[in-house]
Amino acid sequence: MDPLKELEKYEEFLKIKPLYWDDEANEFVWLDTRLLPFKEVYRRTKDYRRVGVAIKDMEIRGAPAIGVSAAFGMALAALEVNTKDVAEYLDKLKEAKDYLASTRPTAFNLFWALDRVWNVIESNKDKGVEEIREAILREALTIYVEDIRNNIEMGRIGSKLIDDGDRILTHCNTGAVATAGFGTALGVIRYAWYEGKKIHVITTETRPVLQGARLNVWELTKEGIPFTLITDGMPGLVFKRGLADLAIVGADRIILTGHTANKIGTYMVALAAWDNEKPFYVAAPTSTIQATADPSSIVIEERNPDEVRKVMGQYPITLPDVNVYNPSFDVTPPKLITAIITEKGIAHPPYLKSLKRLLQQ
Amino acid sequence: MDPLKELEKYEEFLKIKPLYWDDEANEFVWLDTRLLPFKEVYRRTKDYRRVGVAIKDMEIRGAPAIGVSAAFGMALAALEVNTKDVAEYLDKLKEAKDYLASTRPTAFNLFWALDRVWNVIESNKDKGVEEIREAILREALTIYVEDIRNNIEMGRIGSKLIDDGDRILTHCNTGAVATAGFGTALGVIRYAWYEGKKIHVITTETRPVLQGARLNVWELTKEGIPFTLITDGMPGLVFKRGLADLAIVGADRIILTGHTANKIGTYMVALAAWDNEKPFYVAAPTSTIQATADPSSIVIEERNPDEVRKVMGQYPITLPDVNVYNPSFDVTPPKLITAIITEKGIAHPPYLKSLKRLLQQ
Q1: How far is residue A152's CA from residue A173's CA, in Å, rounded to a whole number?
Q2: What are phi and psi of A347, to 5 degrees?
Q3: CA B254 to CA B265: how far, in whole Å?
Q4: Contact present, A183 and A201 (Cβ < 8 Å)
Q5: Residue A150 near chain B (CB below 8 Å)
Q6: Are the C-beta atoms of residues A232 and A207 closer than 8 Å to each other?
Q7: What is the b/e burial string over B153-170, where b = at least 16 CB atoms within 10 angstroms of the residue's CB?
Q8: Is the N-terminal amide bond of A208 cis, ω within 30° of 0?
């Protein structure tokens, strides 16, 4: 099916459109999430390097959104390079791919999306430049629409784990603005809400970049879903006092053992749920799953120390130049994860078996 | 011994003097910790109500500092009330005590210090106003000097648990500016440093009030102790990666079972240490220990939601008026606590036995 045709079917689920392809202008358009919740600013470009900057500087963030944007970056590169020589064309595209791959080292979806586009290039390289260009564009749109379809399906499947009245704790933003649309963990929450379940969301603020205080608050307010904002040190007490029934988070990378790399602090949220015997769910598309069983293969990205020294990129909270450690992710071990929700179904422990089975479907 | 005479002995340990009694002006003087690390401003008053405001608004914070300040608040009340009638005098003092007790509900040292002053009043009530006044002043000074003495002794005892080269994780400020001087958990760290141990401190920023980013950074910089600042979601990864050897924190209240109320987030730090088989120590004077074995007796103070909505009391990080839960403390269960360091010695599990024994010494 034509991806843009399929997209029309999902309109009711897409109240928030964080990124899309402008088919008339041949431009990629995205919401600058750094300015939320105070300003809603869309940016557009024809330049794949600008997409790279948007990913690096976290105008676009969230593993699926990064993957989709990188694919559109390749589409922009495909349109930009002006040659009839296929070898030269491929060289330039390889340059664009390498550049885009260098922007966020932990985001597995980034490499996954770039590899998908590259496979299409490879399988069309006997054809002319025009055919390759068309194939790249179509693949980027396919990845985009697939992400939305997967998120809605993940929401439908994951919502079965949510009861009417549940108070759901989440960490970091995994909503519409972390994906091509709808969201992963927040997509599950959103689906439950659309089904009429009376839920209440408890979101951490998620330091240092405050995705909870800025993005979850913005999305939940837009949807009218009731919520409470807490700091990253509070989930322990929240679970201990019986104020949350479950936790659900997203993932930047899952490996076959179930080890899940996600926003820094996730591991501690999982410990808090676990010590109080509450379910801890991960929701992520199967594109997040890396076919390895070696946790040491997970690279933890360290970001600019000023993210910690300053808040909202501008307000100093400590002395300048103090020594800072700013890892962006941590790894939650499988023993703390009750289940992993994907668009293909729910994986339960032992994950080595269940995740492999899901990937083979 | 005259408390002010004894104080001279501790001079070398008191590089930072967060609060003291001005014996000539009959005024209480304190460092406004809200302005740290950017400005060092001392404030002074003759009015006990102003001391209450300073405690409530967290110009003065940290359980021991609150207790000592409340005692000095009583001294100010004792000087202020102008009557020869003992019954009237006691009525006015009772008013001051009730007011000061209402400022911070979780700080056990607050009630402990006020009760100590009150006991002195009770045992002198057969005498004249002048004698009662003198006894109150002396008791406040005694409580002040005792806190410093206890902290130094706690440091000496606790430092035995710290090896040369240790990387020590701490949460919230428990240093000089949380006490009458020297500090509790940070006092142990300080003592180890004074002994020449090459340590490295990892401090959380401690949202929402940022005691780590503001106060620990200020104190550690002043002492020249090397440190690294992290956010509250990072201790899990720090322990998992073997970047910290132990955790040490303070306490606002400890009960006989070992349940420890301390700054929100402490429980999650304890879980992070525990899941990675690293020691988790609590350092607090025995005045923090409440003679009850009922964890439900611990009141958790909830503070102004704007502490979460804004950073540093002024910078908005989210939409105004969003729903916030802002508990100031959580309770760490004894199973996660390796040992409790006090000025009378170290208590090991089972705490019901060891803490009772310490209290009886």
Answers
A1: 16
A2: -95, 130
A3: 16
A4: no
A5: no
A6: yes
A7: bbbbbbbebbeeebbbbb
A8: yes
- Residue A335: CB atoms within 10 A of its CB come to 10
- The answer to whether the bond into B208 is cis (omega within 30° of 0) is yes
Q: What is the pLDDT along chain B (361 residues), one digit of tens a residue?
A: 799 899 999 999 999 999 999 999 999 999 999 999 999 999 999 999 999 999 999 999 988 999 999 999 999 999 999 999 999 999 999 999 999 999 987 778 899 999 999 999 999 999 999 999 999 999 999 999 999 999 999 999 999 999 999 999 999 999 999 999 999 999 999 999 999 999 999 999 999 999 999 999 999 999 999 999 999 999 999 999 999 999 999 999 999 999 999 999 999 999 999 999 999 999 999 989 999 999 998 888 899 999 999 999 999 999 999 999 999 999 999 999 999 999 999 999 999 999 999 999 8
Query: How far apart, in whole angstroms, are the C-alpha atoms of residue A156 and residue A195?
Result: 9
Pairwise CA distance, residues A100 & A259, whole Å: 26
Give the count of alpha carbons within 13 A of A312, CB side only: 18
C-alpha B291/C-alpha A312 separation (Å) is 44
Helix, strand and coil content of chain B, in percent to the nearest 5, comes to 45, 15, 35
User: Which token pair is B329?
Assistant: 């403390």
Neighbours of B23 (CB within 10 A): 10
Cα distance between residue B246 and residue B239, in whole Å? 8
In contact, A334 and A349? CB cutoff 8 Å = yes
B210–A37 CB contact, under 8 Å: no
Distance CA B268, CA A236 (A): 6
Residues 305-324 of B with CB under 8 A from A: 308-309, 311-312, 315, 317-319, 322-324
Is the Cβ of B66 closer than 8 Å to some Cβ of chain A?
A: no
Give B313→chain A minimum CA distance, Å: 11
**Which residues in chain A are closer than 8 Å to B204, comparing Cβ atoms?**
233
Count other Cβ atoms within 10 Å, centred on residue B208. 28
List the beta strands (DSSP E) in chain B: 19-22, 27-31, 42-45, 167-170, 200-204, 227-230, 246-249, 253-255, 260-263, 280-283, 289-290, 310-311, 315-316, 329-332, 339-342, 345-347
Give yes or no for B327 touching A (CB within 8 A): yes
Say what the pTM is. Answer: 0.94
Residues of A in contact with B226 (CB under 8 A): 323
Give, to the nearest 10 degrees, the angle between helix A86-101 and helix A63-80. 150
Q: What is the DSSP letter of A320?
A: T
Q: H or E element: which one contains B142?
A: helix B129-158
Q: Which of B37, B207, B309 sits opposite A207 (nearest CB)?
A: B207
Domains and CATH numbers, chain A: 3-152 (1.20.120.420), 155-360 (3.40.50.10470)
ipTM (interface predicted TM): 0.93
Mutate to test the interface with B, among A40, A322, A336 (most CBs of B within 10 A): A322
Name the pairing type of β-strands A280-283 and A315-316.
unpaired
